[in-house]
Amino acid sequence: MxxxxxxxxxxxxxxxxxxxxxxxxxxxxxxQLSVSVFWQNLKDTETGLAATYNSMLHEDVLSILDESxxxxxxxxxxxxxxxxxxxxxxxxxxTYTNSSGLVQNKWDACYTxxxxxxxxxxxxxxxxxxxxxxxxxxWTRQMGQARFFRGLMHFYLHTAYNNGxxxxxxxxxxxxxxxxxxxxxAEEVVAFFRSDLEYAYENLPARxxxxxxxxxxxxxxxxxxxxxxxxxxxxxxxxxxVYFNDxxxxxxxxYGYELVEDTSLLFTTAGEFNAESIFELNYTRDxxxxxxxxxxxxxxxxxxLKTTNNEGPNLPAWLINAYKTDQMDPxxxxxxxxxxxxxxxxxxxxxxxxxxxMIAIVDDTHSPYYGxxxxxxxxxxxxxxxxxxxxxxxxxxxGTGEGGDPRGSxxxxxxxxxxxxxxxxxxxxxxxxxxxxxxxxxxxxxxVRHRWALRLLGPINxxxxxxxxxxxxxxxxxxxxxxxxxxKPLEMSMEGHQIRWNDLRRWGIIGDNFNKLSNETYYxxxxxxxxxxxxxxxxxxxxxxxDPAGANLNIRLNTIDYEYDEAANNYxxxxxxxxxxxxxxxxxxxxxx
Length: 593
Fold this sequence. Notes:
By secondary structure, the protein is mostly helical.
């Protein structure tokens, strides 16, 4: 059970009648307790801060599933070559509009978090002059967290909508004019959210006292990571490197982050809040089982179910092939498992540790998955189920299936890691490439690859003596190409806040990438897999390969030559690079044309 202090505060908030209803975003409720009445002390503001954390649990803030389909990381639900999931298809095929769910729901969810944060900020500002020196330390920690979330939401909205021109909401709306604010220029939005994040960076602790009671609280390291990302997105590589270097090398504080070498602690329940986690959303199904899975204040998420059945994104063929061809280091003992039938007693793993940790494919005949072996247990097939599943958000490591909650299998308590150290390494590598330091970039990429026991890139580096290197001669262009199409998508697939879409857009390759993928052809083949009891079975038409040899081409569904065709045809950078201002905002706000 995850009994952190944050969860206890969330429960207090849910049971309290405070002025935090979502309706207050659109109208004034005369029955609500006013700021001057309710917010009397730091205990009250801490409860409001818990509400802010709670609002981050809303799945529309990150929109992980939707964003995987909008980019190149997912096939929309059940059905091949034509999906029957129309709500997902519009994202995949780029036919969504300003009234579509992703566009409207994400906008509202992010501004709800900002609204909660503004309530805390304004209350703290009122209380500041009444506090003693010792209380001011707690005041500063609370203010740092509240401003972090306000800044983070404006960063998210800036990167998602309208070429970065969005509404700056820096106060709790009271009068009509407060609700109906105009759009601010993109550069003003950047200055605003960086001011908040810089305050958080300067005032939040790198680690909290009593860390077990403060799991999930944002830190100085989280602020540094978002600040660095914001500068990277604006191609200010020099400034971005300062923040990334701080996080990686503990320059201004002892963050305690490190790449996790024990891969059983990555994307598993046992690995929640591990040393690689920078910012993690703390879900639970241990409390308030009376709150339905469709309610905004539910403490669980639905990602486990939606990434194991036919509701959410299946893996596209190109990404499965990339994971399958992720080159292992045969000199690393972690890539072998005990096999009494082998002359040496050991056998090389069928796929890499990274592949086994992140996705479920039929070719993975060794890794455990819901009480069996992955190749046998995963639901796959060319008849519509697809050829791969994401494992990152599932409970595959602690049961034989999703469930165990009165609300059914939609209620999962699996945490969501929003930012982790591996991404910081890869973003730093990009900065180093762009500033001409290919050797430094290789070190950062290889640090991530070595954690997974993968073959390392470039010339031999004594830092990893005994490891196998590919001995390729990389320059800035070739290493950047590898980062864009192999290292970053394989390490960060379907993670964070629209990471893949932001990357493709700022690299200027969205259209070229869709055209490239639409021209690729893959084939579904049969595979022999092992059950956990040692017996074997044949899985028909379930293993993806770019080579047609061995595929039954008499079955039309075994040829996958249709992925991203519609995306390539429909993509228009003017329309699709950023989400449009939602229709509901346009209709209710007279200051938006």
